[in-house]
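Could you join me in thinking about how sequence relates to backbone shape in a protein? Would you write everything just below, so we can both look at the same thing?
***
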Amino acid sequence: MDGQLSIFDYLETLQMPPNKKHILSVGDKVGRIVLGECRIATVKKVEGLPKYPFYRTDQGCYSYEEGLEDVNGLEEVAKKERAKYKTIIPENLASRVTVEYEPRRCDGYVLWAQIGIMGNMLFWKEDVTYQFMEPYDDEKKLKKEYEKHKKKILDDTYNKFRIVDVEHPMRRLYWSQHGFYADAEYVKFNG
C-alpha cells in the first residue's frame, strides 16, 4: 500500500514513556522557571490520565515534566537565570490609580488594574493583561498614554470595580526587545 490506512487497519498505539511514575495530587505544588522567575502554583485538578497527565492550577496548566521538578530548588535556579536579564520592580507610582473588580463567580479571584508613573516610565496593567512599564523621552507623550490607559481602566463597562487607596504589589518586569519592560511570560513568548 501507499501508506494510507484502511478502516480495517489498527492504529499504532503510542507507548507511555517509562518515566511517568510520580503523578502529583490535588493540593500539591508544581513550578516552572520563566526567564528569571520561579512560578509556583497549587494543583487544582489532574487531567490526561493515564498516558498524558498534566496539571490544572490557579495559574494555568503545567506539564507532567514540570511536576517532576523539585519546587524547593526552582528559586535558586531562577535567581541564577535572572542575572542574564535587565529587570525592574516598579514601586511608589506617582499619579497612581488602582482598581479591584468584583470577585469572579467561578473561583472568587479578584482581578485588579493599575496605572501610574515612575520617573519617565508609564506602568499599566489592565484587568486581564500582563504588566507593562514603558519609558518615554517626551513628557507630553507620557501624559497622553497615561490618560489613554487610565480611561480604559476606569471606563470598563464589563466589570464592576472600586478604586482602592493601596498600591497593588507589582511583579519584576523584564526588558523586551520591543523597547519596554513587561512580565516574564510576555517577554518569553513575544520577545
The first strand starts at residue 29 and ends at 34. Residues 56 and 74 are 19 Å apart (CA to CA). The mean pLDDT is 89. The chain has two domains: 29-82, 87-190.
